[in-house]
Amino acid sequence: MTFWGLWAWAVLGLLGLVLQAVWLFKDPLATYQPAIKPILERVCEQVGCQIKPLQKTDAVVIDYASVDLLRSEHPLDEMVLEAPQWALQINLRNSDVVPVATPWVELTLTDVQDKPVVRKVLNLTEWGAPPVMAPGEIMEHELLLSLKRENASFMGYRLLTFYP
Fold first, then answer.
1. C-alpha distances out from residue 31 to 18, 97, 103, 132, Å
2. pLDDT for residue 132
């Protein structure tokens, strides 16, 4: 192999590494370098990929949360209900300087010994949340939940935000 043949292979290999890096990191590139986002979108149209909002787990902070039992004003209504109704109130804040995807929330209800009794995974976009949180945005949500197991009593809860 000649000297120029080796250089050609080296340039092709380097070009392949750069294209692979752009492919893998297209979402952070589009977020942190908004000037190249239209170029990335046009390329993705051609190759069949999609630019998604940045999924940054440590950017979203739970500012406030509570789980409260909903009581009816009429005592007879409680006998008609199949399972008790609970209200989950949660405030999420994007603490980063870039927009991020709205995370999912895992709610774990715990007993007196802090052992899990019930675990629910909630996709907030299915409950009306926007798919993207702007920098510094605070989202307030109130979700109505019911427990399928009537014997499941809990004393506390844990909340976790994550991306599937």
1. 18, 10, 17, 12
2. 93
